[in-house]
């Protein structure tokens, strides 16, 4: 009795599937969709129905639904050739190459016919060839594509670049690296971007054709004088390794809410070596020497110090179909202060950073959030403590707290340990060729172990506000923010110029 019933229902299922196919062939898409939806509800483990529904959605111009049906079908059969090929193609049409490669790679696609650079760059042909983690007549894997992007980013040879896939006959593809460098007026704009803040930038790419980059900063602000020079280049001509040499000298006026100011003078030099074994992981080690002196503040430890730093970054989660990434980073410093009051001390920092582009293509909206924490063990010198607030020499932005008062440093929270989270939403307002303008709200939260208990009643901070970013590709990014301290009632208006990204 059971066998005839199974045959009856199996035959009913085949008839239902065939009826849906016939309706689809006749162009009756809505009727076909209803038949497949009903049959799928009766047979939820049958992958044929979401596959056919994806085709109907695509024919009706609804790519989002087509991708959703295909992902549901691939949950039933991860290796289905048709589903992976179809879904990879839809992401390719969205110009989402990482997502396309994720699904194409499951079925041994795409095969590369050629790899080229447009326009050609003969001077660095060997270096760029080594940066490419794939080759012609081979499968282009997602890992190789991501590793190539990471190494090209580290090379910093171009103001802007795009690694494109071009479809060719016989199911082949070409990989083409398109690149541009800034015009002279863009270089001038980048150099002069800090003039309102008494700062001059001078960056030189590909010095003497070596593939090295020389970056310089000169700030003549009487309260915050600074000279910084840094040279970075591939190590032994290979893009997997990169070394950096730098020197940094500062002379700054500080006031920690006291009647008298003090002057900090600091000179630092260091060397670092970075390795990029893959697009998901990189590590850095560095040796740093510094000397500091505090005129008018005898309570602070002066003298020479030597430091060893180890750092690493790791992509923890990558969902290219959802345009979501989660990165982790950690750094640890071990240092010794050579003075009567000094000794060994160490600092550790960790960071989680998430980025999400909610639309299938383009960057009309972008959401970024990150959480960072740092801790000092031992008696670190004053200039090694963490500064939270908007300040040109700190990356720990608490955007409702100004880092300076009357041009002097010391008004922001200073901590031996901290927790800080920054979240922001950017909406594109304008884009034309090299110019892009975005704006959106932000929220910053922080908790600190305060230096000298200046903020002992408020170990938690919450700042909210709005910011605008003006990006000039190949030149600079201008960020203007207004932040309000939600607990203390203060506010900060700040403008900063940084490298374009």
How are the SSEs ordered, and which strands pair?
Blueprint: H1 2-25, H2 29-42, H3 48-59, H4 63-76, H5 81-93, H6 97-104, E1 111-118, H7 125-131, H8 142-155, E2 160-168, E3 172-180, H9 184-192, E4 199-204, E5 213-219, E6 224-235, E7 238-254, E8 262-275, E9 281-295, E10 303-319, E11 324-338, E12 344-356, E13 365-378, E14 386-387, E15 404-405, E16 408-409, E17 414-432, E18 435-450, E19 460-472, E20 476-485, E21 491-498
Parallel strand pairs: 1-3
Antiparallel strand pairs: 2-3, 4-5, 5-6, 6-7, 7-8, 8-9, 9-10, 10-11, 11-12, 12-13, 13-17, 14-17, 15-16, 17-18, 18-19, 19-20, 20-21
What are the main properties of this structure?
501 residues; 3 domains; elongated; Serine Threonine Protein Phosphatase 5, Tetratricopeptide repeat; alpha+beta; 23% helix; disordered N terminus; 3-stranded mixed beta sheet; Porin; Ubiquitin-like (UB roll)
